[in-house]
Amino acid sequence: MSLRLIITFAFFTLLTLYFTFLNPGDIEIHLTQNSSVPLPIPVFLLVAVLIGILLTSLFTGYSQIKNAFKRFLKTRSLENKTRRRKQWERLYQKAENALKGGHSDKALSLFKKILDGNPKHIASLIQSGNLHRKMGKTVQALEAHQKAVNADRDNPQALQCLAEDFATAGQWNKAIDALKQARHLEPDSLFTLRKLREAYRKQNAWNLVLQIQKSILSHVSNAQELEQEKEYSSQIAYLRGCELIDQQQIEPAISELKRAIKENSKSLPPYVKLGDLYQQNGNSKAAIKTWKSGFEITGSHICLLRLREAYEQAEQPGEVIKLYLEAVHASQNSKKETLILTLAGLYLDQGKMEEAMQTLWSIASPSIPAHLLLIKAHQDKHEAEKADQVTRAALKKLTTSLSRFVCRQCNSEFDQWSGICPECQAWDSLDSAIQHTL
């Protein structure tokens, strides 16, 4: 019995004694119309109090039992949920392990088992959708990822995966809508921004591509990533310039190609394309200036070829020779030999045999093409004996190269072939030295 009931009972007992003292005598209680029971007033009051206490106790006990039963059901429900959640976690871990082990079918089966018990298990919906997409089942992938989005509309990963499905299906407008929602949830997500950039690019929406690219550049902090993004900015401007050329919008195209060079000065294509555009529109001076700048910065032989064609069209062979001489002096390693061979070829074309031979003999270890040019030079001068000597030297070099090996990774040369480079430990990187000789 609670303290409250005890106090209540004591209070009514004292009240009964008080009324008994003031009202001695009996009270007649009618059970029916013809029967009645006389009761002393103290007894009547005491019985009334006891009945009240009994009813109060019954109602209080029922409420307590009811609350206890509710607590029991709630605890049991929580225990069941916890048990099921742990079971799903174990199955999900097994599925991830299966994925890492390359067992896609097993992983898919485990994800399905989870979803049978919990159709709104977001992680399983996302992973199973990704698996379906990789297997070429785009419809099933869309269905799974749409369920994930419906179950949690604030999940950016689910929206990203859904956008990937739409992109795979070629539904770029829907992909863009999904990516916009994901971006709203995570404005700084580089993954979302890059996917959105790709989608706009597929639609040739270059202004929107540029807007997204500016956002990406503002969020990149890593120096290497920033350099890559600047290169991508150059590509965007270059592609935009090419599109404007196709539309015969020459001045805007020139502006875009110049911007491509500004975004990444070490990128070759904008120099070549801008020079070509100037040349096609009769501005040879600007074309030559652009290609020269491109060669000075990139060192690419493509710019030299463009310059050679321009000077030859202008009937300035001396400028071509001067150009290649400067390039030879400024170059190193394999590029130097390529330029020397080109220069020697120019001398031969102009009938300058002595200059051609001097140029070729300046190569420390001439390649087979260098030997061939020397042979031609001696033959043109009717020096059969010297041509024969060069031929023998070329054959010796060729024979030696057949029995030596060079690593594609570190360029080290070896007498014996091995599966792993002894110098840099690269796998399957040794080729016959003849590849480099040629």
Fold topology:
Elements: H1 3-22, E1 26-30, E2 36-40, H2 41-100, H3 104-117, H4 122-134, H5 138-151, H6 156-168, H7 172-185, H8 190-202, H9 206-219, H10 223-246, H11 250-263, H12 268-280, H13 284-298, H14 301-313, H15 317-330, H16 333-349, H17 353-361, H18 368-380, H19 384-402, E3 405-407, E4 413-414, E5 430-432, H20 434-437
Antiparallel strand pairs: 1-2, 3-4, 3-5
Helix pairs in contact: 1-2, 2-3, 3-4, 4-5, 4-6, 5-6, 6-7, 7-8, 8-9, 9-10, 10-11, 10-12, 11-12, 12-13, 12-14, 13-14, 14-15, 15-16, 16-17, 16-18, 17-18, 18-19
Q: What characteristics describe this protein?
A:
single chain, 438 residues, mainly alpha, two-stranded antiparallel sheet, 75% helix, 4% strand, elongated
Q: What does this molecule look like?
A:
With 438 residues, this protein is mainly α. Among the domains are: 1-83; 403-438. The protein is 75% helix and 4% strand. It is built from 20 helices and 5 strands. A 3-stranded antiparallel sheet has the order 4-3-5. Helix 4 (122-134) runs antiparallel to helix 5, helix 10 (223-246) packs parallel to helix 12 (268-280) and helix 11 (250-263) runs antiparallel to helix 12 (268-280). It is elongated, with a radius of gyration of 45 Å. The N and C termini lie far apart (107 Å). The mean pLDDT is 82.
